[in-house]
């Protein structure tokens, strides 16, 4: 079996399982990948500042063995896009939510509309979704000392000016 059809099959089964379990709302928005975000967030420097971050390079830093480990994949990938491709690294949508419904400029120009279409404004709970004791050893170790306010001040990328 080829990898892409396998990922697609697993994705379809996952969505079907969520519908059966009553969790279909969680699958409402789809991942589009960081290249889609780059289109609008390059001029402001947001994309390049993220690209230089540890989050963007997270997948690159893993050994080949850990890249095959499902536990590591949960924490070092973002999701699967509509083409069935695994979005490696901690891409934009890992923190901001799947972007299929808020990616358009006309939606992003209205913060309330973007949020109602799936945009997540990250907070401590968002960060602790990965920086927690259930994470693989390296992340779990940092979770003990994870200081949200300190990390927030450092930022993962440049913060867009108000209204942008």
Which key features would you list for this structure?
164 residues, 48% helix, two-stranded antiparallel ribbon, 11 helices, Flavocytochrome C3, Chain A, domain 2, single chain, mainly alpha
Short description:
By secondary structure, the protein is mainly α. 48% of the residues lie in helices and 4% in strands. The protein has a two-stranded antiparallel sheet.
Protein architecture, described:
This protein has a single domain (30-154), classed as Orthogonal Bundle (Flavocytochrome C3, Chain A, domain 2), CATH 1.10.1130. The N and C termini lie far apart (45 Å). It has helices at residues 3-21, 34-41, 46-51, 64-67, 70-76, 92-96, 105-108, 111-116, 124-128, 137-144, 148-154, and strands at residues 77-80, 86-88. It contains eleven helices and two strands. It is globular, with a radius of gyration of 16 Å. With 164 residues, it is mainly α. Helix content is 48%, strand content 4%. Strand 1 (77-80) and strand 2 (86-88) form a beta hairpin. Strands 1-2 form a two-stranded antiparallel sheet.
